[in-house]
């Protein structure tokens, strides 16, 4: 009788596993089309809450590779800092086929990143653009300190206007050793990048004005793993 009971439960177990596998499949074109930008933002923030609480979703990456090989319909594009401590997909508890990620030191805007974001949204259908900075950013600290090194010099020059724009600190506090000042500049740099995206890309500005996408800024806390939306 015990064996018979087990056999009776086996199809249910298999069906349950299949349902879990299906639920974790990459986003389909139909699902992407049904998303609103706000829903995408809410889902990303819920994913970060799972990450912070240690409840990240278990995924079959091998299955995801196969399922996504024929095409992609990501829901968001995130411009992040290069920092190795900010693994973007893990931070938002997403996986293969879910989001586009662009990265450079200091999450700055340039023509190549703008073109990539335009592709992700206007062509590939992503509904959210997020610029993601983080605490204790080395690129920001370098910009504050006036660091120069090859091509990095030109990149850091894009961050320096944010250094000058941050107010409320005495001259002796405006150093790369002051973590509060570094983090304030990192937040201002995110806002500055968003302004550049809107100013330098008529494609993205129009999509945002039409309500097709949201463009938002956020900061990642290296100490807690938490993502905080910036106003």
SSE topology sketch:
Layout: H1 2-23, H2 29-34, H3 37-53, H4 61-68, E1 76-81, H5 88-91, E2 99-104, H6 111-123, E3 128-134, H7 138-145, H8 152-157, H9 160-165, H10 179-200, H11 202-209, E4 214-220, E5 227-230
Parallel strand pairs: 1-2, 1-3, 3-4
Antiparallel strand pairs: 4-5
Number of helical regions: 11
- CATH architecture classification: 3-Layer(aba) Sandwich
Query: What is the string of SSEs from the N terminus onward?
Result: HHHHEHEHEHHHHHEE
Within CATH, the superfamily carries the name Carbonic anhydrase
Mean pLDDT value:
92
- Integer count of domains: 1
**Inertia-based shape:** globular
The quaternary state of the protein chains shown equals: single chain
Overall CATH class: Alpha Beta
Helix/strand-derived category reads alpha/beta
Q: Let me know the number of strands.
A: 5
Question: Quick one: biggest sheet?
Answer: 5 strands, mixed
| Helical coverage, percent range | 40-55%
Strand order of the largest sheet: 2-1-3-4-5
Rg from alpha-carbon coordinates? 21 Å
Regions with little confidence, pLDDT below 50 for 5+ residues: 1-22
Beta fraction of the residues? 5-15%
The CATH topology comes to Beta-carbonic Anhydrase, Chain A
Q: In angstroms, what separates the terminal alpha carbons?
A: 63 Å
Features:
single chain; 231 residues; alpha/beta; Beta-carbonic Anhydrase, Chain A
Compact summary:
The chain has 231 residues and is of the alpha/beta class. 52% of the residues lie in helices and 13% in strands.
Any overview of this molecule?
The chain has 231 residues and is of the alpha/beta class. It has a single domain (2-230), classed as Beta-carbonic Anhydrase, Chain A, CATH 3.40.1050. Helix content is 52%, strand content 13%. It is built from 11 helices and 5 strands. The protein has helices at 2-23, 29-34, 37-53, 61-68, 88-91, 111-123, 138-145, 152-157, 160-165, 179-200, 202-209; strands at residues 76-81, 99-104, 128-134, 214-220, 227-230. A 5-stranded mixed beta sheet has the order 2-1-3-4-5, sandwiched between helices. It is globular. The chain starts with a helix and ends with a strand. The model is unreliable at 1-22 (pLDDT under 50).
């Amino acid at each position: 009788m015990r064996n018979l009971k087990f056999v009776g439960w086996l199809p249910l177990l298999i069906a349950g596993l299949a349902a879990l596998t299906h639920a974790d499949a990459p986003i389909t074109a139909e699902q992407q089309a049904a998303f609103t930008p706000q829903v995408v933002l809410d889902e990303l923030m819920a994913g970060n809450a799972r990450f912070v609480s240690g409840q990240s979703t278990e995924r079959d990456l091998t299955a995801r590779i196969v399922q996504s090989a024929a095409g992609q319909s990501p829901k968001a594009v995130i411009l992040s800092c290069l920092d190795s401590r900010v693994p973007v997909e893990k931070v938002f508890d997403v996986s293969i086929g879910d989001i586009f990620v662009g990265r450079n030191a200091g999450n700055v805007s340039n023509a190549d990143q703008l073109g990539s974001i335009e592709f992700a949204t206007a062509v590939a259908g992503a509904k959210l653009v997020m610029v993601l900075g983080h605490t204790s950013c080395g690129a920001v600290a370098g910009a504050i300190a006036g660091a120069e090194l090859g091509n990095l010099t030109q990149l850091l020059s894009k961050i320096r206007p944010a250094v000058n724009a941050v107010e409320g600190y005495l001259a002796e506090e405006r150093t790369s050793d002051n973590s509060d000042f570094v983090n304030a500049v990192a937040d201002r740099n995110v806002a500055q990048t968003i302004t550049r995206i809107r100013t330098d890309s008529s494609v993205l500005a129009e999509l945002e004005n039409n309500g097709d996408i949201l463009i938002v800024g956020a900061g990642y806390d290296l100490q807690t793993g938490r993502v905080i939306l910036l106003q």
